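queue> pop job 88
queue> type: inverse folding (structure -> sequence)
queue> payload:
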């Protein structure tokens, strides 16, 4: 039997993940009381069912029983039942926003602010995150990207890379991305906006890329940035960090930042990398939408 314990922060996407795993052929049970956990596994493991893949969702909704889950997981070793823990996490700011949008009540707020409930929850499930085999931060993941990560792990049996790096281009006039870990300002480079023929194009077009990268300071900047990131990645991974957002900004987020974000992504996208990698261009089309 292949057993996966699906857990994590409330609002981080556990229910969505369970539905996806059901589509992948897993027999799924969400919010199973801890008191029934061992009995279910004893029955399931001994009955030799045709369904050999099981995913059980367990989190703070179990209440006081959650404290017994740590001992129940230890007993799985005695029962010779192998298992893996999938932990879904997200930044507190993102979780609060999701709760406000859905108008749901956090299970541990007790009438207080959502922040208090999240703080209590992190304390209660810290042992699960510490022992997790897979930690996926959904702060910046789209639903299809979460599905891709789960399929990579549980269908294709690919090696899991817990560090997810997002390279994000943006325009300073639209604000610095709130979830940035690092912010790079490339407004020191000549701006193709002032070339009437280049203005309608973006950093995804070769003409803009050639314009930006012909300047020696652009190449020197990206060389130094790549060197810094390559140094930091193993340090962050060793400290347990699983999400890194590198934001590169210019004035409008259309030309210089997009070009350099693409260049950094190309340099970091090696086959032997031990981290996940994605790229986003937040403000690429905003000028066009505003008729500029």
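queue> result:
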């Amino acid at each position: 039997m292949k057993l996966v314990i699906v857990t994590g922060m409330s609002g981080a996407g556990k229910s969505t993940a369970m539905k996806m795993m059901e589509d992948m052929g897993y027999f799924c049970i969400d919010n199973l009381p801890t008191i029934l956990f061992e009995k279910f596994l004893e029955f399931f493991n001994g009955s030799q069912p045709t369904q050999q893949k099981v995913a059980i969702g367990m989190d703070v909704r179990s209440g006081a029983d959650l404290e017994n889950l740590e001992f129940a997981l230890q007993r799985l070793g005695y029962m010779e039942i192998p298992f893996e823990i999938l932990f879904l996490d997200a930044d507190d700011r993102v979780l609060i926003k999701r709760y406000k949008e859905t108008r749901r009540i956090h299970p541990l707020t007790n009438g207080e602010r959502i922040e208090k409930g999240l703080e209590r929850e992190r304390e209660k499930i810290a042992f699960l995150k510490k022992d997790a085999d897979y930690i996926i931060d959904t702060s910046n993941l789209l639903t299809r990207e979460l599905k891709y990560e789960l399929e990579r792990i549980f269908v294709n049996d690919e090696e899991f890379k817990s560090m997810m790096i997002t390279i994000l281009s943006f325009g300073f006039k639209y604000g610095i991305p709130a979830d940035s870990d690092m912010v790079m300002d490339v407004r020191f480079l000549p701006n193709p906006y002032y070339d009437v023929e280049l203005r309608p194009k973006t950093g995804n077009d070769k003409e803009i890329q050639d314009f930006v990268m012909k300047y020696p300071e652009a190449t020197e900047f990206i060389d130094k940035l790549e060197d810094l990131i390559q140094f930091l990645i193993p340090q962050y991974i060793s400290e347990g960090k699983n999400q890194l957002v590198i934001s590169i900004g210019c004035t409008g987020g259309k030309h210089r930042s997009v070009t350099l974000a693409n260049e950094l992504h190309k340099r970091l996208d090696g086959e032997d990398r031990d981290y996940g990698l994605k790229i986003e261009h937040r403000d690429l089309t905003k000028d066009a939408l505003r008729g500029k």
